[in-house]
Amino acid sequence: MLYSIKIATRYLTATRGQSLLLVLGVAVGVYVFVFMSALIGGLAVLLIDRTVGSIAHVIVEPADRNPALLKEAPGTLLAVLKSSQQRPTLQSAEAYLPILETAPHVSVVVGKLLGNGFMVKGEAVAPVQITGLESKDISAIADIDASLVAGSSELMLGTAVIGSGLAESLGIGIGQSLVIRSERDVEQSITIGGIFQLGLAAVDNAAVYLNIRAARVLLDLPEGLSRYEIKLDDLQQARVVADDLRARTGLKATAWQDQNAQLLEGLTAQARSGDLIKGFALVTIIIGVASALLLSTYRRQSEIGIMRAMGASRGFVVTVFVIQGALVGLAGGLLGAGLGYLSLLPFPPPELTSGGGLPVDYRQGAYGAAIALTLAGAIAAALWPAYAASRIDPVKAIGP
Amino acid sequence: MIDGPLVEVHDLTKDYEEGDNVARVLKGVQLEVARGELVALLGPSGSGKSTLLNILGTLMRPTAGSVRILGQSLVGADDFVLTEFRNRHIGFVFQAHLLLPDFTALENVMFPAAARHGRERREDRARGSELLDRVGLSDRRDYLASQLSGGQKQRVAVARSLMNAPELVLADEPTGNLDRESADRVMQLLTEINTSDGTGFLISTHDEKIAARCRRQIYMVDGKIAHDSR
Ligand SMILES: Nc1ncnc2c1ncn2[C@@H]1O[C@H](COP(=O)(O)OP(=O)(O)OP(=O)(O)O)[C@@H](O)[C@H]1O
Ligand SMILES: [Mg+2]
Questions:
Q1: Nearest alpha carbon to residue A8 among A326, A288, A289
Q2: Is residue A305 part of a domain?
């Protein structure tokens, strides 16, 4: 082994220019691999950040009461009526809190009171979605603080933080007061404390955040919560956590993937096309290494013949060429991954960019995988030339 | 079993097949060489000298007949066994002094030992230097093979053939590419080694003067041994 390494390195350094060119070619393939990994990873971060960043990862709600338990008698028509007025609530919500907060991967739990209503300003009336929560929790799920365009995000008893689209349609600004009426026909007068713009039209055009105590009065829900919204430290664990919480609480728990099937499909498709390009890069590397080594076995066939005549085994010849492949793969892998890292480093991570620019994520360059796959690919590429070299007939190679 | 005469060949035939044509190149060769003999192999071009040497060197398989070297029959042995046997017991010197051009003179000489042990051992380095000294090339030890003259290359090849102290050295026209002076020098070297080490030599040549320095001459004609001076 030691001696085969010596011969392999000598062969590579003897034809220095060609070896350098070969390593450079491999490095380019590795660079493409690293760049694609960073780009696909970065795009995913960006999309997830823009979408999942503003929504809960797991939502815990009261379980649906199962109407199928009612038996339909012959000759009767069974109509299931659900009250649109009285929304289901988590009655003793506080009891669940310790379970949710201590579950694995859970980083934030926010209790919310939800309801519908209208805002009235003179002649203008706008339908709104009312969310009541603790003032400290306002930025826990969607980052309202960071999206604030005017005022403050603090929720006091008489203030509201509303979406920018809603403010525009009602023609109101910070400090102005107006009347809000809930689906329970309760009315309150509130002052606009803050206006935000998340960039999600559905939210910006209808959301009204209120202090939870004000919301209790407005929605006529003196106790309980509509639901808990949970953020996780690992997005990919959402389904596992949801299953776990469902089992432990008996409540309905939904993971973000099950509310955003399209996003997930898009991400998967993106990752797959990225894998395809990475696969092509690897194939290019393999073809390049194989053809270069095949050429080398051809050029060195008389030397290989002489080595065989001197008592070098077939295995020895195979090892010499496989090691050449491995060395080329390793050098090209390290060079390509290193250059990839250095050229990706100046790009800020996608979640910190304000859009625009290349959404590459240098943390997702898959450098280790790139080097390992290149090494494995180069070794595989060397197998055929190595086998061919070991089959060289010394008599023919040495000549008359 | 490593015993018996150096070379024993009976009824050796070799056919080359080319398409439908079968050319019989060796036509029943009988040959015995004792240990430590210095034998010249003569004969016109195409008479089968190289073919015989390649078969004795286990580089080629005979079509029929028996070949024993040091008492060991090698006809049915697999490649691994043949390679190992070659490495330990047979040295080669070829006409086209085939060295590894990207390796130094010393590295070339050490090759047979390094191939056996998987590394260049210190004692092999010492022996390699000693052999280079013996062929008068100690000052060219660290030159790349590609930087040596034809005569120097051939002396390196002689040193290499002796590295693993083989009982038999096969030399196919070792002086064929050399001028008179270099040829004499190489031949001088081979006879010296034969006398001092008792290494057996089988040397094919077209040069009567070279052949005359051997104690035994074998003449091949058309795939048979036509005359044996013994
Ligand atoms: N690989 C081969 N395929 C077919 N025929 C071959 C092959 N090698 C050698 N021969 C033929 O075998 C015969 C003997 O060849 P060989 O090389 O043994 O002769 P030689 O005595 O060494 O000749 P020279 O003195 O020219 O080296 C020749 O007629 C040659 O054409
Ligand atoms: Mg010949």
A1: A326
A2: yes
Residues A349 and A224 in one domain: no
Distance, C-alpha A186 to centroid of its chain: 42
Chain B residues in contact with A400 by the CB 8 A cut-off are: 50, 95
The ligand 1 atom at the shortest distance from the C-alpha of residue B48 is 18
CB contact residues (below 8 A), chain A span 300-359, against chain B: 302-303, 305-314, 316
CA of B198 vs chain A CAs: smallest distance (Å): 20
Domain span at residue A115?
93-259
CB pairs under 8 A between A and B: 72
* Ligand 1 contacts CB of residue B182 (under 6 A): no
For residue A380, being part of any structural domain is answered with yes
Tens of pLDDT, residue by residue, chain A (400 residues): 789 999 999 999 998 999 999 999 999 999 999 999 998 888 888 887 777 777 889 999 988 765 555 566 777 776 766 555 556 788 888 888 898 899 899 999 999 999 999 998 888 889 999 999 998 998 888 888 888 999 998 999 889 999 999 999 999 999 999 999 998 889 999 999 999 998 878 889 999 999 999 999 999 888 889 999 999 988 888 999 999 999 988 899 999 888 877 777 888 888 888 889 889 989 999 999 999 999 999 989 899 999 999 999 999 999 999 999 999 999 999 999 999 999 998 888 877 776 667 788 888 888 999 999 999 999 999 999 999 999 999 998 887 6
Is the shortest distance between the CB of B50 and ligand 1 below 6 Å?
yes
Kindly state whether residues A305 and A247 are assigned to the same domain: no
Spell out the domains of chain B, with CATH numbers in brackets: 7-228 (3.40.50.300)
Both A131 and A15 in one domain: the answer is no
Same domain, A252 and A274: no
Contacts of residue A305 in chain B, CB cutoff 8 Å? 98
Phi, psi of B209 (to 5 degrees): -65, -40
Strand, helix or coil for residue B33: strand
Q: Does the reported pTM lie above 0.80?
A: no
C-alpha angle A244/A250/A251, rounded to 5°?
90
Beta bridge partners, B91, equal B169
Residues A244 and A150 in one domain: yes
The rounded Å distance from CA B172 to ligand 2 centre is: 7
Which positions ≥6 away from A295 have C-beta within 8 Å?
none
Nearest C-alpha neighbor of A295 from the set A13, A3, A19, A27 = A19
Per the DSSP assignment, residues forming a β-bridge with B201 are: B38, B169
Same domain, A318 and A215: no
Ligand 2 centre and the CA of B187: distance in Å? 18
Number of domains composing chain A: 2
Asked whether the beta carbons of residue A310 and residue B114 sit closer than 8 angstroms, the reply is no
Q: Is B154 in the pocket of ligand 1 (CB under 6 A)?
A: no
Helices within chain A (DSSP H only): 2-14, 16-51, 93-102, 144-147, 164-170, 201-204, 212-219, 238-249, 261-299, 301-309, 314-344, 367-390, 394-398
Boundary-marking domain end, from A259, A275, A307: A259
User: What sign does the CA torsion over B2, B3, B9, B11 have?
Assistant: negative
A239 and A304 co-located in one domain = no
C-alpha distances (whole Å) from B190 to each of A345, B110, B174, B201 are: 66, 19, 10, 8
Nearest to A400 among B50, B92, B102 (CB): B50
> Would A84 be classed as within a structural domain?
no
Residue whose pair of structure tokens reads 């013949």 in the numeric block: A305
